[in-house]
Amino acid sequence: MNFDIALFVSVLVLCFLGVINLNSIYSSSGEATSFYSFKQIYWILIGLSALFIIININYITICRYSYYLHAFALILLLIVLFYGKSKFGSQRWIYLAGISLQPSEFAKITFILALSKFFSENMSPRAYTIRDLFWPFIILLSTFIPIYLQPDLGTAGIIFLIFLSMIFFLNLNRTSFLRFFVFCAVLLPGFWFFLKEYQKQRILVFLNPDLDPLNAGYQVIQSKIAVGSGSLLGKGYKLGTQTQLRFLPEQHTDFVFSVWAEEWGFIGCFFLLLLFFFIIYRGLRIAYSSKNFFAAFLAVGLSSLFFWHFIINVFMTLGLFPVVGVTLPFVSYGGSSMVSCLFGIGLLLNLNMRKFK
Amino acid sequence: MSIQFDEKNLALLLNKKIRLSVILIAVVFLFICFRLGYLQILKGSKYSALSTNNRIRITKTPDPRGLILSKQNQALVKNIPSFDLHLIPQDTPDIDTVLLNIAELLQIHFEDLKEVVKKNAGRPPFKPISLKKELSWNEMSLVLSKKLDLQGITVETVPKRLYCLGTFASHIFGFLGEIDHTELQDPEYSDYAMGDLLGKYGLEKWGEKYLRGKKGGLQTEVDVYGNRQNILAEIAPVPGCNLIVSIDPVLQTKAEELLQKKTGTVIAIHVSSGEIFAMASSPGFDSNLFARGIDYKDWKKLIDNPFHPLLNRALQSQQPPGSIFKIIVAIAALEEKIINPQVQFFCPGHYTLGARTFNCWKRGGHGWMNMRDAIVESCDTYFYNIALKVGMDNMVRYATMYGFGEKTGLELEGEKPGFVPTPQWKKEKYGIAWQKGETLNMSIGQGFLLATPIQLACFFCGIANNGKIPKPRLVLNVDCRDTKERYSPETLRICRISQQTHAFIRDALAGVVNDPKGTGARAKTDRIIVAGKTGTSQVASKKSIKSETDIPRHLRDHAWFVSMAPADKPEIVVCVLVEHGGSGGQVAAPIAKEMLSSYFSLNEIQTRAEKGSPLN
To answer: What is the interface pTM, i.e. ipTM, of the complex?
Structure first.
């Protein structure tokens, strides 16, 4: 057995910090004090069971079923689209046995599995051209479009970024891809017209937060105030005024990092950053040391998933990126996200355990 | 199914890219570190201040203004709560919706509200904007019941002045007004802020430094909805000091009622202490209109009123004293031993000096008059006869001695000094020598001579008090809870006149009211012996006019009556002036009588109450 104990422990520490952080959020309000943190522990336990189940299955077997798993996730996405439960103007949830599930979270993992399988089976000395990526594009669009239509711009964007990250690791034909990027650059402004009004608003406000300081720009301004006022050492646990007095919006999902930053300061943030960097680094190290392309692509894909989630969420809270609703893995409240992230870690641990086979 | 690495190059390329990406990722993380360092360490204090601003509000708590109380501790001016509608724009997610709700709820025009908000656009954040002052109970409960739809709206309790006597005594209590720009620059008002109310007239103005308390402050922590979470610090407001005044609400009300529909003034003053029990000036105004700042329409109405309701006639109406001045002439004659009071002069109804004829008010003549008769019947001819013997010098000297031509100096602003003319003054002013005829005119209180009602009241206090004239006053003490500032009676002036002369005058004045031929007979009461003197000051020459009622109002004579009672041992002086009222005996004397009867019946009730015997 070659269990990456360091990766596992750092993920556990991160989950623990997440619970602590969630517990702070409702400390001052009249609501059930540890409602979110308690539920989060529950999700962590489910996620850990998923993790332990998955490390006992040889990843070669998982590879075999990758397409089917992704197809299943796509069906769930379609169900969400037609029968889903809407919240905040978008349909992201379905109910299964009394639990609300967010299939897009699982689709991210199966998407990576499906792409890894395709790339590993289509390795050739000849460099990839755009034409060779026909099927990967199909996989991308079949995942991207239903998520985009929910609409969940954040997750759709993550899917696209994972896709770009994974093809970055292919042997690419430069001229072909240059042509492709030029094509994309031309298409991008056209993309604007497909955005919903509130999405456009968010992007405009991101470009200029003072455009609407009371509504759309409000979240970013309050988040920056929370982060900045944390200073070097933070205001102290459960003492963040931006958090406790609810000046900070969406504290338990999009802006958990701001809560952390306000109460633990630069030192706390730096520690969190180190943990995330370590997890991503470990993921890439597993990819580096893997003995086959499937394992390598899977590890690279999962690392990119954590990387982009982390980067976009933190950039959002620091006012460097529009507020698109991307959560902070292991720290933000959310069952589906937690379970799928721990599932992803399980896959990484799995790859590491079997790298010498 | 598993793919073995037969293409070593591809694997090498992949690993090269993984190494590259680790470096790229490290760069991105480093960038985040720098960004965090920038926000949290470099700009940390700025954002800390911003987060403090977010949650901490400093509000001022209004200071209750001091009360004005009567001697019996009855509140004459007090504070009542009034309710204002405030808006804090920063606490409102959607101002227009909230304003629309308010407009609908309170039946106000939405545009007006919008205008108010727009006018206050430059305010510092979290400073409330006052949307509407003085909500009714009904409106307030409506707003409070819909509070959930009205985020950012609060109802604030603001103390408001209530003048319990309404339009009565308005000249004494005065009114409040918003501080103006020149006052704001005055160092004396350095702790006042824009929009603060301060006394602008009457005792409110005189007592500003006592009545005003100290504003309190409240530092509170609020949540994102503006709900108060904690009070972090509190400075309690200090209420202002109370003024205890000599005004007796019953007598004051009586005086005001007697002056209804008349232009004039009534003063009731205590003979030895100078305490003013009543001082009414008609027409008056409603001080309550000013309680939260008067609106323009009401102000314009007051200013444009031809009877000048803002004038305090007791201090500001300067009129010739008419026959009341004869007392000065008589005193001068007695003190200088110019005339034996028993010497009689014959009054045929007129007096001839050179080519000019001076008429007595009684055309048929009074017949033979000694000094007492002349005072009782107010014979002009007698005084024409003695005027030149007494002379201007003596008249001026004694008039000045009793306070003519000089302010009495009571607390209220704007008192007029009156005027005592001298031959020298006339020469300087007009370049013409003083005429003997003018001395005659002066002896019956006409011509250039001017006096205010408060001066005549003080003059009579002097006669009643054997020459000692107290300083008239309204404020007895200032009660600041911990310190009590007591104002003891002051003597305004002492007239060195023999007791005999004063006794003679008092006896003559009693005759004015009580003798069958006295001009002040209408002031006579059964209860008490009143002494007084009528006066009628001419506004226009009466040669061509037959009857009093034919004269247009503004040309009618001013009616004076100054009285004291009881005649043998006076306690109170009542001075009445009815402008353009006609003759003093007919118009002013009955008012004085009513005042005196009320005073003495009140006194009786009080003494009985003190003795503990039941009223019958």
So the answer is: 0.93
